[in-house]
Amino acid sequence: MFERNPATARIGEEILPFELGYLPEYFQKKAAAELNETPDRKEQSLRQLKEFLKADKHTSGFIFDDDFLIQFLRVKKYNMAKAFSQIKAYITLRKKNPQIFLNLSYEWVVRTLQDRALTILPYRCQDGCTIIFIELDNWNPETLPIEQVKKAFVIYLLQSLREPMSQVNGIKAIIDVKSNPIRHVRYCTPSNLHLIYYGIQEVCPSRYKEVHIVNDSLAFKAAWFIIRPFLSEKIRKRVNFHKSSETLLNFFPKAILPKHFGGDLENYQVWDWLKKVTTPEKLATIGGIKNWPSQNDRRRST
């Protein structure tokens, strides 16, 4: 019922902008059919989840935004126990890796747009999915250190999930893994790859619908060899390999892909959105927690 043909999808009809801010009626029906969401269940589950979080010693001190909690309810199809467990996993990961949540700024993350290494495409897929677009060969670790790339992922993933459309429809990724092995292979360490695997698959409250791997590289082969055994069978089945970008048109409308990937888009960087989500006010509640201790607060407590 909710499948749409990429060959016939049109901007303004089946194709909607990434930055929408609300859930159209068509996708409200999709949320009901696929995620068991109704207005009453949403209100009741949100209230119950807050009670669970308030009673648990690991989460009782935090103030959560409603849209943050709804992300976990939706990704777990309103299974309360699973949503509660994933929120606690998020809290644990954030406590163990505080450096990737600190000193976030527009000035650093915008480098990924300037270099065309990482971005979110300005239009959604015909089925409403957010599209993350990565060109590994454009990443130069000497000018954009690996720690800054991790912070960029935090911003792109967590802030894009504040969009109701992203919560309901999920994310698709297009990754051009062509790369310079001298630059990149050294970063395929077990700790970095575990952070990617665990953070994206087990912690981040997103529905991952498809991953499209274009081209090939030594760095990707090394990473894939390590990560693949840990991926769920569901995720592995959603990874599609492409010898060239031409076959992406079997999955995505031409209107939403960059020109050098066979599409129509010349300018595809989401500058305006990135400026909005990296204001000090927005970054203060990154991920939807209003009172996470600052770096100075943690120093005083140690």
Question: What is the β-strand count?
Answer: 5
Structural classification = alpha/beta
Instruction: Describe the largest sheet.
Output: 5 strands, mixed
Mean of all residue-level pLDDT scores: 89
Please write the string of helix (H) and strand (E) elements.
HHHHHEEHHEHHEHHEHHH
Residue share in helix: 40-55%
How are strands sequenced across the largest beta sheet? 1-2-3-4-5
Over all CA atoms, what is the radius of gyration?
19 Å
Put simply, the count of helices is 14
Global outline = globular
Which regions are unreliable across 5 or more consecutive residues at pLDDT < 50?
295-302
Protein name: Retinaldehyde-binding protein 1 like protein
GO molecular function, one term: phosphatidylinositol bisphosphate binding
Short description:
It holds the Pfam family CRAL_TRIO. The chain is α/β, with parallel strands linked by helices and 302 residues long.
SSE blueprint:
Blueprint: H1 25-35, H2 39-55, H3 66-75, H4 80-96, H5 106-114, E1 118-120, E2 130-135, H6 146-160, H7 164-169, E3 171-176, H8 181-184, H9 190-203, E4 208-214, H10 218-227, H11 233-237, E5 239-242, H12 271-277, H13 280-284, H14 295-301
Helix pairs in contact: 2-3, 3-4
GO molecular function, one term: phosphatidylinositol bisphosphate binding
Protein name: Retinaldehyde-binding protein 1 like protein
Domain CRAL-TRIO: 106-269
Description:
- This protein has a five-stranded mixed sheet with strand order 1-2-3-4-5.
- It has 302 residues and is an alpha/beta fold.
- Helices cover 45% and strands 9% of the residues.
- The radius of gyration is 19 Å and the shape is globular.
- The C terminus is likely disordered.
- Helix 2 crosses helix 3 and helix 3 crosses helix 4.
- It is built from 14 helices and five strands.
